[in-house]
Amino acid sequence: MDTPAGHDGSLSDQEFDQFRELLRRYCAHELDQWESLQTETPYGPVYVLFTRSLPPDTAPEAYRTF
Predict the structure, then answer these.
(1) In this model, does residue 1 exceed pLDDT 50?
(2) Do residues 32 and 53 make contact, with C-beta atoms less than 8 angstroms apart?
(3) Source organism's superkingdom (predicted)?
């Protein structure tokens, strides 16, 4: 997918706030059990896993609340 002009680089504070709010809504209303996503970046692929369960042997404190 092509990136629209003017949308390269870091997110602005406003864009990051919008991202967090949309992610909260997605997790609350769209996420069932899990979702696995992958995207390409200039530094290589990034893998994202959303899950409703804590991975084994992982403390909840390992995660930042947003």
Answers:
(1) no
(2) no
(3) Bacteria
- Strand spans (E) along the chain: 34-41, 44-51
pLDDT bin (cut points 50, 70, 90) of residue 12 is very high
Answering whether pTM is above 0.70, one says yes
Angle 27-5-42 from CA coordinates, rounded to 5° = 65
Strands 44-51 and 34-41: antiparallel
The residues pairing with 41 across neighbouring beta strands, listed in sequence order, are 44
* R_g over Cα of the chain: 14
For the stretch 14-23, contacts whose Cβ atoms lie closer than 8 Å and that sit 24 or more positions apart, written own/partner, are 20/66, 23/66
